Amino acid sequence: MNKGSNSKPTDNKSNRGPLDGIRVVDWTIWQFGPVAAMMLGDLGADVIKVEELTGEQGRALFTVSGIDRSLPGGRSSYFEANQRNKRSIALDLKHPDGVAIVHKLVSGADIFLQNYRKGVAERLGLSYEDLKKINHKIIYGSGSGYGPEGPDSYKPALDTVGQARSGLMYATGPDGADPYPIQGVVADQIGGIMLSWGILAALYARQETGLGQRVDTSHLGSSIWLQGLGVSMSMLTAHKPASETNLTAKPSRDNAYNPISNYYRCKDGRWLMMANLEADRYWPAFVKALEIDLLTKDKKFIDTESRAKNNRELIKLLDEIFASKTYEEWDQILSAAGDFIYAPVQRLMELWDDPQVQANNYIVEADHPTLGKVKLANHPIKYSETPTSIRRLAPEIGEHTEEILIENGYSWDDIAKLQDRRVIL
Known about the structure:
The protein is of the alpha/beta class.
């Protein structure tokens, strides 16, 4: 593999990422916390995943939204997708010796991550107050459902309730439609992204002050921020009559305010999405490209406001026109006719063949030790001098337990005793 690559999976330990030399103790489950730790691992951090002796819960998730997501050998694609660039140590944290091992790891670590419901870490002696006594420079990342304060701070949460509580479920369809969760477990994903972002800011602050700190984020807060424009606009215009309408929702396709910021089905069944927000700027070139120049003289369509008043009629006409040619034909026409903003509406399985995705390595192929060639979403940020990398794929339960313990000063006799007491596998 090329040493400078931002994308190619590699075992080359000299490939230094932005967080090379940073150690993370990752005591997280499901997706929210694991994504945050995985992103830090992509950046070069040494991530030690602390699991139960039976394995993290995500290992046993074989069906997602009714779809079989299992892999050969009893593996879960859900777990594989969230756990790369980590080493696994399996511990019984109900045993004092198991907690003592985590304390030992924390003493030499930079970051500790957890996303258990409020009270769990405290009961086990793994709270921020506990760990900062061991390492005052530790950055303690905590992910929760609803935030660390308030009447619901103790409640458990997963992705869809985060979407529900934050208003995100009303952003998925036209006004008046029943709420529906966005697919792809996006509340968990944005929660993990925001937690890793907060950790990076805390690392920078520690460099300046020498102090560690606790970093908190939640499904609720992250999902509100994900739709921050709509939320803030709604609040800023709360005095207006339509303020009760969720501004993140959208009108139905056949009632779009701006018909050239809308989506249309082509002859081959593919959809074309246009996002020409400056409608009056694009309108003359658009109607010329579609060979309907007469519309430029029609008072019903002369400007944005007029087109909005007559949008249903215009959209019906555009539906007929776009249905007359394939997407590839329209792509050639629109790209040659002007600087239009448009794209195909793609399914997930089309992404690998997208030349733009390939050119930027947004999806990468890796060699899995048991599954062979696999494809994964790549870290989305590129660094010219300290590239990210996929150095290892998801570990087996406790795969690196002995290795990690030896690194942290335990002897082989210590390891044997811990195994006898069933503290480790």
